[in-house]
Design a protein that fits this description.
This is DUF6036 family nucleotidyltransferase. It comes from Halobellus rarus. It holds the Pfam family DUF6036. InterPro entries: DUF6036, NT_sf. Residues 15-173 form the DUF6036 domain. With 281 residues, this protein is of the alpha+beta class. The protein folds into 2 domains: 1-135, Beta Polymerase, domain 2; 151-281, no CATH class. It contains 12 helices and 13 strands. It has helices at residues 9-22, 33-39, 58-70, 81-86, 115-120, 137-147, 152-160, 166-180, 184-200, 206-224, 235-242, 246-258; strands spanning 7-8, 27-32, 47-48, 50-55, 74-75, 90-93, 99-104, 106-107, 111-112, 122-126, 130-134, 262-265, 268-271. Strands 5-6-7-4-2-11-10 form a 7-stranded mixed sheet. A two-stranded antiparallel sheet has the order 1-3. It is elongated, with a radius of gyration of 21 Å. The relative contact order is 0.11.
Length: 281
């Protein structure tokens, strides 16, 4: 993938305009990732290999893919492991090597494209049938924090220099917990923030909040590892296994119960087998 062509602002704008010129029904899309970083003012990237678009309407997705097909973009099958992990709904590429990665609602099987993300996006292109927004730097930072790709830590460092509003990111963390039905994704954010500190020497105001999520999740996870779906266990037995108090088991159980991961029966506590909607690479 390292030998692939890279494309700058002028080329990306021209391709988006070509899509707009060919559409005959409404499509609303949002640019994320390197493409958005290139097109924002100030621009944070000179070029990008891929144009990452997210749409939130199934019919709009079909219309967009139809136009890209008409413009000579073909489905890519030789993506490699890194791109396979991204979980794009469609990956298409033209003869020049420009690739569109198109997502529907959830990006890379990780974060959902929330109403707040839509509202924070900056208008970029507004044609009769095609509108494109640029996702905010705050939301790009969060996407980069869960993508688990080598280059993303450097992009996170660049984004920090734009005076990010970390209160916005923290609020979006809370929203993603609701949408995903759990806090597993925050463990990946925590690891990315650790690498940001180790590799770039950057700590953020987000660190403390993410650490709280991380510790709460890991305590619940430790309890869950002792649970079984078929055989409930008593609170006292679980307390003995983990060398903690009955009260601590109850606290951790309440955490798991709120997301539907554990339930109480007449015989004790059991695992439900449920997982949230976040998929790790």
């Amino acid at each position: 993938m390292s030998s692939r062509e890279r494309f700058g602002r002028d080329y990306i704008e021209a391709e988006l305009q070509r899509i707009a010129d060919h559409l005959q029904t409404d499509v609303e899309a949002y640019l994320i990732g390197g493409g958005a970083m290139s097109l924002h003012e100030p621009s944070l990237k000179d070029t990008t290999k891929d144009i990452d678009l997210v749409v939130v309407d199934e019919a709009a997705l079909s219309r967009l893919m139809g136009v890209l097909n008409d413009l000579g973009y073909e489905e890519v099958t030789d993506l490699g492991d890194e791109y396979d992990r991204l979980g794009a709904r469609h990956c298409v590429r033209n003869d020049a090597g420009c690739q569109f990665d198109v997502f529907y609602r959830q990006i890379a099987d990780k974060l959902f494209f929330s109403d707040g993300m839509q509202a924070r996006s900056e208008p970029f292109l507004s044609e009769e049938y095609f509108s494109v927004g640029l996702v905010s730097f705050e939301d790009i930072f969060l996407f980069k924090a869960v993508a688990e790709r080598t280059d993303d830590i450097g992009d996170m460092a660049t984004l920090v220099q734009t005076n990010l509003d970390f209160d916005v990111i923290e609020s979006e963390l809370e929203r993603q917990v609701e949408l995903l039905g759990g806090e597993f994704f925050v463990t990946v954010v925590s690891e990315s923030l650790e690498r940001l500190d180790e590799n770039e020497g950057i700590q953020t105001p987000l660190d403390d909040a993410v650490q709280e999520y991380y510790l709460r999740y890991m305590e619940g996870y430790e309890l869950r590892m002792q649970l079984e779906e078929d055989t409930p266990k008593s609170v006292s037995a679980l307390a003995t296994e983990l060398s903690v108090s009955d009260e601590e088991i109850e606290r951790r159980f309440e955490y798991l119960e709120q997301y539907g991961f554990a339930e109480r029966t007449s015989e004790g506590i059991r695992d439900t087998g449920r997982n949230d909607a976040f998929t790790r690479s």
